[in-house]
Design goal:
Functions as a peptidoglycan terminase that cleaves nascent peptidoglycan strands endolytically to terminate their elongation. The protein contains 14 helices and 6 strands. It folds into 2 domains: about 55-120, Endolytic murein transglycosylase (Dna Ligase, domain 1, 2-Layer Sandwich); about 125-335, no CATH class. About 50% of the residues lie in helices and about 5% in strands. A hairpin with a 5-residue loop joins strand 5 (about 335-340) and strand 6 (about 345-350).
């Protein structure tokens, strides 16, 4: 009996040891599984590639629900896991996503992606911004925007935007916007007028010139090609539009002036009169002048609208949206002349005699 009791105690100890080992193994397995699950979920909550500048275009169809949108984002490698994103969005009680085309980046956070889908436009929190003012030239963008806000010199920027191989690549990427007209013999800079004036968010501490340039071109394309059907009706090209708009941008001192100045140019073009706008002479001469003299108007250059009829070969500055719209919707006038007084206010005239009277009255010459 004593031996049997001894044997039974031994069996109990063995069972306990087995149970302990099994429990320990289970705890380890559960711990490993839990850690892996935690790591996987944590990874899925982070950006796919925090350093990526690659733009991924995602088309969200009308009527898409959260399940289909999540799957679409995972399929396009914008997020790591559709299920994690779906539960994350539900946890934050987000809804009312909008259909549309989005240029997203693998470096965007889940919150940035969600905000983009809710607002209908791509949203990211920028590190800083760069402002490109209206009415400045490519050289001024190089000197006053790029050189002052990035680590690139003006020379490096100008070398990039005038590089024939790079321009050819851009023409393939933006075929409707950048046509063969930008390569015409008399065009000074192929991308002059195509870097849209706007405030640009910068998401990388050291963005490449390619990213900066194409960010501006994307904005130009969005603003210009929205009028593609109008241009087709007019049988005009985007190059014609940005060139015409650049003249208004340089001449206008008030919003209402743009439509009226556009009407003056249209009237002159219809009568085969030279446009005779001073900013084209200044651009042709390649240096800023507060005032032009008689000898300056004799300066021979394809861009001078005193020496040549019609529009110049290309834009003379970057025009804003209001100037673009004024070209397509000008005022209906019989004006053929205008001048700006010492305060910058434009005065219009139907005849040359009226123009001379305005000159004597407002300029004193």
């Amino acid at each position: 009996m004593f031996e049997r009791m001894k044997e039974k105690k031994k069996e109990v100890r063995i069972v306990r040891r087995i149970v302990f080992i099994i429990a320990l193994v289970l705890l380890i397995v559960i711990g490993i599984a839990g850690f892996r699950t935690y790591s996987y979920i944590s990874n899925a909550l982070d950006p796919v590639d925090p350093d990526s500048e690659k733009i991924i275009t995602v088309e969200v169809p009308i009527g898409s629900n959260l399940d289909s949108i999540s799957a679409l984002l995972e399929e396009n490698k914008v997020i790591e896991d559709a299920r994690v994103y779906k539960y994350y969005v539900k946890f934050k009680n987000e809804s009312e996503f909008q259909a549309g085309t989005y240029d997203l980046l693998p470096s965007m956070t889940l919150d940035e992606i969600t905000e983009s889908l809710k607002s209908g436009k791509v949203y990211r929190e920028p590190l800083y911004t760069i402002n490109v003012p209206e009415g400045i030239t490519l050289v001024e963008i190089a000197e006053n925007v790029i050189a002052k806000n990035t680590d690139y010199t003006a020379e490096e920027f100008l070398e990039k935007v005038n590089n024939p191989e790079y321009v050819a690549e851009l023409m393939v990427k933006y075929p409707e916007l950048l046509t063969d007209e930008i390569l015409a013999e008399d065009v000074k800079f192929p991308l002059e007028g195509y870097l849209f004036p706007a405030t640009y968010p910068i998401f990388d501490e050291d963005p490449s010139l390619t990213v900066l340039i194409e960010q501006m071109l994307n904005t130009t394309q969005a603003n210009v090609l929205q009028y593609q059907s109008v241009l087709e009706e007019l049988e005009k090209s985007p190059h014609w539009l940005v060139t015409f708009a650049s003249l208004l941008e340089e001449e206008a001192t008030a919003q209402s002036d743009r439509e009226t100045i556009a009407s003056v140019f249209y009237n002159r073009l219809a009568d085969e009169m030279p446009l005779q706008t001073d900013p084209t002479v200044i651009y042709a001469m390649g240096k800023h002048k507060e005032r032009l003299f008689n000898k300056d108007y004799e300066y021979e250059d394809p861009y001078s609208t005193y020496q040549n009829k019609g529009l110049p070969p290309g834009p003379i500055a970057n025009a804003g949206l209001s100037s673009i719209q004024a070209v397509l919707d000008p005022a209906d006038t019989q004006y053929f002349y205008f001048l700006a007084d010492k305060e910058g206010i434009n005065h219009f005239a139907k005849t040359y005699d009226e123009h001379l009277k305005n000159r004597d009255k407002y300029i004193g010459q």
